[in-house]
Amino acid sequence: MTDEVRSAQNPPDAQDPDLARDVAARLRDIPDFPEPGVLFKDFTPLLLDVPLRDRVVRDVVGRHDGAVDAVLGIEARGFILGAVIAQELEVGFIPVRKQGKLPAATHAVSYALEYGTATVEIHTDAVQPGQRVLVVDDVLATGGTAAAAVELVRRCGGDVVAVEVVLELGFLQGRSRLDGTAVHALLTT
Ligand code: AMP
To answer: Is the CB of residue 145 less than 8 Å from the CB of residue 170?
Structure first.
């Protein structure tokens, strides 16, 4: 068992107590990607494991069934699980994309990444005022991306129900940038 698996945390009342351990076993560490010094957490092996992927989706859906009006996915990996979760919750899916990719009128927010800076955008009409939006991504690192997504929803007049990620890099303290927003990670390292 790796240190990462040993450090997997799950709430004691979790529906699927082995989920964090099993997810940890399907995340792949890629050192120095996309640049030197970054340990990239690759979740594509998890996507290939159909039963585990299904458990991940069920876990998220179980927390939010009937309580959200739309799921927002952050480009690009947030699109993958986000779209499946939206399908299961029977709600719409909203893409948040990097600058210049969305074709209609947008709101934009700039932020600092763990590596570099970025601007993300949302279509101004993607969220209706008062809608409850669930934000989904693969990794919460410094929290800048998720905080930008939360701000984009607010600019549209929507309410963020929670931010759901597969993995939280706890040492980067991304939660501190999401004060007032519920954050749930399937796994925290
Ligand atoms: P941050 O804004 O720092 O929380 O970065 C989160 C975004 O960058 C997410 O969309 C992740 O997909 C990606 N990301 C940042 N750091 C990593 C990492 N070490 N491994 C994998 N993805 C990462």
So the answer is: no
Residue ID of nearest Cα to ligand 1 atom 16 = 141
Pocket test for ligand 1, best of 139, 167, 187, 188 (most atoms within 8 A of CB): 139
Per-residue pLDDT tens over the stretch 97-152:
999 999 999 999 998 765 678 999 999 999 999 999 999 999 999 999 999 999 99
User: At what angle are helices 77-89 and 50-64 packed, to 10 degrees?
Assistant: 60
Q: Is 77 a catalytic residue?
A: yes
pLDDT level of residue 1 (50, 70, 90 thresholds)? very low
Determine whether 75 is an active site residue. Answer: no
Domains and CATH numbers, the chain: 3-188 (3.40.50.2020)
Which amino acid does the sequence have at 5? Answer: V
Note the pTM of the prediction, 2 decimals.
0.93
Measured from CB, residues less than 6 Å from any atom of ligand 1 are 38-41, 74, 77, 113-114, 137-146, 174
CA dist 60 and 187 (Å) reads 12
